[in-house]
């Protein structure tokens, strides 16, 4: 062994020891767990009754955030949910849909009552004070933002919002997200796969 190779080994060994010591001294950052959609909420249903997530335990839930003045996404999604319920037949008894308003200023209890009646009796409209809506939206990972189109009056706003429908289990656990544009047959089959 030559002097150069001994020197090289000594330097590499020292460097390895230094790197090992430095790595051990670094703080270990725990990864934050991925938080799935779901959690407690307290809102008012389309009949004026205060409800919480606990009132829906024991049933599968389809959860959708939107608003009654929505020109396209909400009526399309709620029609898909209604058609999926019809396709499920008797199995639909195990499932309920929650349409949670992101526009509580306009989506009052009477407005929600009239709106959800156009779709299916298994769809419950929920509204409430803005802070409670925002809290529920955050827990269910729904996003929304008021948008005033150019040239419009302040009360002629739209709301840009998430368009997916969440399937929650009987204990409130997240099971699946249905993307906007899904066919009712696909939604019904997706729900049915968890009912078995």
Molecular shape: globular
The biggest beta sheet is recorded as: 7 strands, mixed
Number of strands: 9
What name does the CATH topology carry? Answer: Glutaredoxin
Strand order of the largest sheet: 2-1-5-4-3-8-9
CATH homology superfamily:
Glutaredoxin
How many domains, in number, for the residues? 1
Q: Helix/strand/pairing class, anyone?
A: alpha+beta
Span between N and C termini? 72 Å
* The CATH class: Alpha Beta
What is the mean pLDDT?
89
**Global Rg:** 26 Å
Q: Strand portion, in percent?
A: 15-25%
- Give helix and strand order, one letter per element, not per position: HEEEHEHEHEEEEH
The number of helices is 5
Which CATH architecture would you pick?
Answer: 3-Layer(aba) Sandwich
Low-confidence stretches: 11-20
| Fraction in helix | 25-40%
Topology:
Blueprint: H1 3-25, E1 42-45, E2 50-52, E3 60-66, H2 73-88, E4 95-101, H3 109-116, E5 123-127, H4 130-139, E6 144-147, E7 158-161, E8 165-168, E9 174-178, H5 184-195
Parallel strand pairs: 3-4, 4-5
Antiparallel strand pairs: 1-2, 1-5, 3-8, 6-7, 8-9
TL;DR of this structure?
Helix 2 links the parallel strand 3 and strand 4 (95-101). Helices cover 35% and strands 22% of the residues.
């Amino acid at each position: 062994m030559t002097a150069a190779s001994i020197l090289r080994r000594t330097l590499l060994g020292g460097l390895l020891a230094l790197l090992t010591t430095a790595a051990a001294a670094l703080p270990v950052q725990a990864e934050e767990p991925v938080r799935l959609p779901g959690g407690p909420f307290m809102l008012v249903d389309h009949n004026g009754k205060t409800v919480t997530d606990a009132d829906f335990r024991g049933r599968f839930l389809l959860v959708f955030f939107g608003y009654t003045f929505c020109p396209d996404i909400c009526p399309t999604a709620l029609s898909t949910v209604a058609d999926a319920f019809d396709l499920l037949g008797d199995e639909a008894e195990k499932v309920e849909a929650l349409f949670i308003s992101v526009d509580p200023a306009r989506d009052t209890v009477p407005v929600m009552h009239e709106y959800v009646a156009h779709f299916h009796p298994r769809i419950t409209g929920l509204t409430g004070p803005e802070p409670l809506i925002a809290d529920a939206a955050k827990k269910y990972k729904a996003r929304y933002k008021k948008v005033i189109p150019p040239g419009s009056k302040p009360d002629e706003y739209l709301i840009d919002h998430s368009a997916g429908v969440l399937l929650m289990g009987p204990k409130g656990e997240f099971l699946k997200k249905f993307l906007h544009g899904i066919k009712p047959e696909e939604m019904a089959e997706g729900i049915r796969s968890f009912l078995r």
